[in-house]
Amino acid sequence: MNGKFPQHFLWGGAVAANQVEGAYQADGKGLSTSDLQPQGIFGAITPRTAGDSGIKDVAIDFYHRYPEDIALFAEMGFKCLRTSIAWTRIFPQGDEETPNEAGLAFYDRLFDEMAKYDIQPLITLSHYEMPYGLVKRYGGWGDRRTIDFFERYARTVFERYKHKVKHWLTFNEINMSLHAPFTGVGLPPESDKSAIYQAIHHQLVASAKAVKACHEIVPEGKIGNMLLGGILYPLSCKPEDLLETQRQNRDWLFFGDVQARGYYPAYMQRFFRENGIEVAITEEDRRTLRETIDFISFSYYMSGCVTADPEQYETARGNILDMVPNPHLASSEWGWQIDPIGLRYLLNVLYDRYQKPLFIVENGLGAKDRVEADGSITDDYRINYLNDHLVQVAEAIDDGVEVMGYTSWGPIDLVSASKAEMSKRYGFIHVDRDDAGNGSLERRRKKSFYWYRDVIHSNGASLKDRR
After folding, report:
1. pLDDT number for residue 315
2. This model's pTM is above 0.85
3. φ and ψ at 133, to 5 degrees?
4. Sign of torsion, CA 240 227 171 54?
5. What is the DSSP string of 48-113?
6. d(CA 458, CA 438)
7. What is the pLDDT of residues 295-322, one digit of tens each?
8. Which residues make beta-bridge pairs with 445?
9. Looking at the annotation, which residues are catalytic?
10. Which residues contact 374 (CB under 8 A, 6 or more apart)?
11. Burial of 400: CB neighbours in 10 Å, binned 0-12, 13-18, 19+
């Protein structure tokens, strides 16, 4: 692997505010949509009442323990840490005229701590949450006014952190809104397709406005989008399977097409027409969308298959998507199929399509770890998973794909997004907390901690091709 990764490759890890910070009402923070999903994305939307509690309310208490955690990331040699700003720490209800200074000050402290170790922040503006106040008062992203509220928020944080943050992302896994509309766009789960695509359109316009604002306020910075990289293969070589695979891949590539090319692709016009979907798009919207992103970022956990006759097959559940299983692949404890070569394939697909730099901002293995009597955690399954995926990243770079960096998902154990579990662990660092919220929150290095440290220090030369 020696020499395949660029000299300034951004090695690191990725977390999200609502899955690590806790302190869910501290220092003036408002309620977010995530706070109303205490059982995760697939749980019920639950109004908060006085005295109630959820596991994400404390999460892993990163809000108070970040100096310890940043020091551990630095010990591994991180060049980059992806996290998100909790929108409700800055604008608690979402529609205030002035921001919450205590929230702004927290991220100043966080970014300053990262700077002590030369760890570059990669900051997502909205990661699976938005102010619940905007949902309650306006109907979330279904209302065009939310565009302006988001732009105000984006400009506020760009101005505040322009000397501290040079890499930004707009919306996390923006295509996920098709499958979990409350999490993605603040709409009820039963919303129809027209309502969902209208809300998505408003979000795409807001993303473009944020890109323009970033280019104005942080001219030396870069801003990208973030896609759930749910690459699909045809189950067979039947032409019908190939066409259906193309259609389903376009369901999520559409978001990248708009954000990277600056306009709605023709295939979406046909899709809207044939499905009776009406989306109000103004001429000003069309002009705004021409402000395109600087790079493409994405998550990758698994691939899946597509058939024109899906009723004949059982589906494999991913974090959000249901896919037909690939008979040639093994699966994780949670039924996610493991496909390292799929990452190389996806990198090539995206680079061929957009010719923009790519950033792998989520990739990892959720598993149940066992703490031995001596306190050690031997997680060879995680090491093997990440090793094999990174070998394929090196191959894609050798193919000519421009890859900016790699931030593994959950370098420290966190609350999972799908079901708000602590037992589904991704980290190189163990956190003593269980699904019921019990535990000391003590941090402990796993075997993978030292493995990833060696990978970073060798710039990938320590990886092993196990094929």
Report:
1. 64
2. yes
3. -55, -35
4. positive
5. --TT---GGGTTT-HHHHHHHHHHHHHHHT-SEEEEE--HHHHSSSS--SS--HHHHHHHHHHHHH
6. 38
7. 999 999 999 999 998 777 766 555 555 6
8. 429
9. 173, 362
10. none
11. exposed
